[in-house]
Structure to design on (215 residues):
């Protein structure tokens, strides 16, 4: 079960377990598009998902990456409305779905579950406020550094550690830059001792400095 289930009571845990199903998807698949009805709370059991959208002029924008262990979509499930964003998978992934009746039962009956939701929503709000700041004040390297740091957010992805399997192409997509720019920025961050770039992976050496890069 997911990390958030550790604080649930036995009855709550069993209700959550019975309400979750896991499905496999191939790289490049969309879980949903803007306007789709996906009334299930969604978790990334393995792989990486990107939440974003495409403008009327066809420009794609990535809003946030969700690595293994992350969950999203709670606001949409609570409000019972269509999705306001696209969700695409950057690699072969296993996705967990909690059905809406189970989610709402936990929301109505579990103090521990609600504490977790409040923590998640607070972190997401902080992220989207910071996102506006990144695009106004930081250069490409700064935006890339901050986006990588958010993948290791201790509330949204508490069990990811400081190592993630992710390619430079995937990082470029998350940050909204070209692969060449992502490569140059990663070299700069590695030279500053903030991370190590491996073959299809990144190991963070100084998360605090990475999350404040460009200040």
């Amino acid at each position: 079960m997911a990390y958030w289930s550790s604080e649930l009571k036995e009855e709550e845990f069993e209700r959550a377990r019975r309400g979750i199903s896991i499905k496999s998807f191939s790289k490049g698949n969309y879980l949903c598009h803007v306007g789709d009805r996906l009334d299930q709370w969604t978790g990334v059991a393995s792989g990486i998902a990107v939440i974003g959208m495409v403008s009327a002029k066809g420009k794609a924008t990535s809003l946030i990456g969700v690595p293994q262990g992350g969950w999203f979509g709670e606001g949409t499930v609570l409000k019972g409305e269509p999705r306001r964003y696209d969700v695409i998978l950057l690699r072969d992934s296993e996705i967990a779905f909690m059905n809406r009746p189970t989610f709402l039962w936990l929301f109505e009956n579990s103090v521990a579950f609600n504490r977790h939701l409040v923590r998640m929503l607070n972190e997401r709000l902080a992220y989207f406020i910071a996102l506006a700041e990144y695009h106004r004040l930081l250069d490409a390297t700064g935006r890339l550094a901050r986006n990588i740091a958010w993948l290791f957010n201790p509330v949204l992805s508490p069990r990811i550690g400081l190592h993630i399997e992710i390619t430079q192409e995937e990082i470029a997509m998350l940050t909204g830059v070209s692969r060449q720019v992502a490569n140059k920025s990663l070299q700069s961050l590695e030279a500053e001792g903030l991370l190590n770039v491996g073959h299809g992976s990144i190991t963070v050496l100084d998360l605090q400095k990475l999350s404040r890069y460009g200040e």
